[in-house]
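Bench notes, afternoon.
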Amino acid sequence: MNPDQANISTTAGMDSNQQPASTPPVDHSLGGMEGQEGEEPTKLSQEVSKSTTDDSTDAQEVGATGGGSGRDPTLVGIQKQFQDLSFKGSEAANEIEYRGYNRHNMELLKSLLDRSFQISKDIEKLYADIAAVIAGEENSDSGSAQGNYHFPKPFNCLKYEPITIMLLWKLLPPSRSVGIVFVEAGSDGHVSPMGTCFRLGTKYVLTCKHVLDDIQKELGKLAEAEIPGKVFVEFNFCKPFFESQLERILFRISSFTVPGDDNLDYCVLEMSIPDGQIGKVQEQLPGLGQLVCSVENSGTITLIGHPGGEPKAMDPSCPYPHPDVGVYLKLNPEPKGDFSQLTDPNRVTLSSVMGRGSSGSPGFNRDGNLVLMYARGYCPHNENMEQGVKMTAIRDDMRKKHPVLSQELFP
């Protein structure tokens, strides 16, 4: 096939019967330590315990309302109690060293036990709450969210299962229909990778709306009519161009057929394909619209795309929903701002190592069906999560807004 070519280059841790040496022997009996007649017996441990509870409550209130920090109030209370425990432990050690064994120090030690018991109960409760949330993830679809993405690539990924050879066989044909979107950023032929896309219909590709927005920013100095001619798609970018002997499969974008939907973050681009080559393109790069399938409540998804603008790659068996999304929702039941879409039923969180540059990548289930388009990542509490938009949501939106075109894209 002779594609409409462009000149491109990529950038791609005392013994209890022993007295301290520095102190005189002390009477260990309690006979002389009873309260004097008329005095109320000591209530140090009870008062300390009550104070601990009150402090914990105050800390919890601060954690719940203080500046929107998002810290769990139970953890704030535990932290405060550990600080008090450390202070009282140091006080008790000094008292025993200089005053020896007596009732006062016995009460100090009891207050330490009270504090430790309260901390253990709080930790048990928090553990049970988190365990319940995680267990519930197996039977619920938690959606996903937008948010700030602070790292170019995720730094960890939990894998639940290996990918089967049968699934690999199923995914090889559709993988050929995954391309990378480039833009000519200057007159010297230099190009910049903008995102990933995949084939639909006879001469169309689907990618993210924010990819198109980035393209328009990149070419902001050009007239709007000139932008489409500066954008193209390469489907055979499987090795760096300078060492690849693969045939180039390259098409320029002729128009932005569906400029996009911000809520679902998708857009449709039309490729410039000569009429005589459409049949061959369909054979070599089949449209993926007929593979669209609803996503189950939980499982694994395999992504195919161009992370970081690099050659085409696959991230197999990405678990979804993301293991930590339920915990985030418990701490932030009404997410706002960048995380406002965390509970969007049209989105799915998953754990992946794809990262930037993968926007627009197709995601396939264990049967090889197309279930989502990767959209973005976000980073709550320094833990990366990825987000995809359900393909059924995109398809249904297209059928409503563009009924004629949707018949071709999703047969």
